[in-house]
Amino acid sequence: AQSVTQLGSHVSVSEGALVLLRCNYSSSVPPYLFWYVQYPNQGLQLLLKYTSAATLVKGINGFEAEFKKSETSFHLTKPSAHMSDAAEYFCAVSRGSQGNLIFGKGTKLSVKP
Amino acid sequence: DSGVTQTPKHLITATGQRVTLRCSPRSGDLSVYWYQQSLDQGLQFLIQYYNGEERAKGNILERFSAQQFPDLHSELNLSSLELGDSALYFCASSTLAGGKSSYNEQFFGPGTRLTVL
What we know:
The complex is a heterodimer. Chain A is an all-beta fold. Chain A has strands at about 5, 10-15, 20-25, 35-40, 45-50, 55-60, 65-70, 75-80, 85-95, 100-105, 105-110. Chain B is an all-beta fold. Chain B is built from no helices and eleven strands. Chain B has strands spanning about 5, 10-15, 20-25, 30-40, 40-50, 55, 65-70, 75-80, 85-95, 105-110, 110-115. In chain B, strand 5 (about 40-50) and strand 6 form a beta hairpin. Chain B is globular, with a radius of gyration of 13 Å. The interface between A and B is medium-sized, with 26 and 31 residues.
């Protein structure tokens, strides 16, 4: 069975600091991995996706994630946090041939001025 | 704007009632997925339709049902509502059925917030 675990339900950083949101996956087949962002009272927006091409994936808004098979991780990073990055972030894996997404519990990112 | 529309935006109803949530996928997308987001369970997959046919089922209760119509819009029907059904219900659409490839970029609508009193 496939699953994702997000470490830390809340992460707080200062504006301009590095953002690191952790995601570990469990999958018996090569996974397809995604990061989504949810701003307050809005739907989910795709930040980036890993589909077995490059292991370092660049997404929107300056975010990137690195797929590490040996660590079964897909952590999300951004070199310099901006106030507008405050949101909830979800890591997800695509479930086998059915295609539906299995989400982690989410990490709420706060950015302090 | 993802191109996926959901109506209504908010719905307040009483226990025991039945409601219908509507979703219109992005133009050209054949797959529709329904997800439930609640504080207790997080984001959970409910059901998927592809071109009018049910393709996959997740943690969907028997009191819930869905369908996809010939024009590709989808409806999620929730009946005998309970307090615990209060949640945000998302619809997502994709071009793929899921088939042999798991690569499946899904575009999410803004959601319908259901409150059961």
